[in-house]
Amino acid sequence: MKTRTSVVFIVLATLMSFNVFASSQYKHKYHAANYKVTITNVTKGISFTPFLAATHNRKINLFTIGEVASFEVSRVAEGGDISGLNAVLDQSDNVLATESSAGLLAPGQSVMLKIKGSKNFRKLSLISMLLPTNDTMVALRGAKLPRRGKVTYFMKAYDGGSETNDEYCANIPGPQCGGIPFSPDDDGEGYVYPSPGIHGHGDLSTLDYQWDGPVAKVVVERVY
Q1: Which residue among 29, 167, 172, 185 is buried most deeply as judged by most CB within 10 Å?
Q2: Where are the domains of the chain?
Q3: What CATH number does domain 29-222 carry, 2.40.50.140, 2.60.40.2130, 2.30.40.10, 3.30.2000.30?
Q4: SS3 state at 93
Q5: Which residues, including other chains, have CB under 8 Å from residue 17's CB and lie 6 or more apart?
Q6: pLDDT tens for residues 17-71?
């Protein structure tokens, strides 16, 4: 009787281990597809910090307009720091894959990322900071991955709402200004909203940095 109980326990433990392994394999390999994501900066004078890309299901939303940004998203908006958000997404069962670019993306330039998608992870999100700004980000939230061929999206700019838009270089990081990247004592407007662009006060010129409409073009192509 003791031997039989041990055998049953071993069989059950084996089945449970297999189910955990199968679940992991299902997430990462079932119906996996490869995608090429090409991002082009369509502004006149704005640069983008490194992009973070993620493929996920419907349960992921980077932020909601009119609501407070998460700490990790505010770090992207204020300083271009994608490490915290990347870690959060990597730990989520609702995310299939994350990828990131390197270096600044200047006006007119493009960068290409390769990322995996699948039947149960058909959404793509992208995020980066605009320089020089206090806390403006460019984002694509939950866009559909194409089942075949390619699709084009245009990305808008959003104010993170976590830092006042004083447009003084002392409070703006990056090569144009060289200021501090984060302002922990400044709560800004308190919510995410569509960015109105550069106002022209402080140290920033509308002639050099203003934009109107989308700030980036994204082409997503399935490459199998």
Answers
A1: 172
A2: 29-222
A3: 2.60.40.2130
A4: coil
A5: none
A6: 444 444 444 455 457 899 999 999 999 999 999 999 999 999 999 999 999 999 9
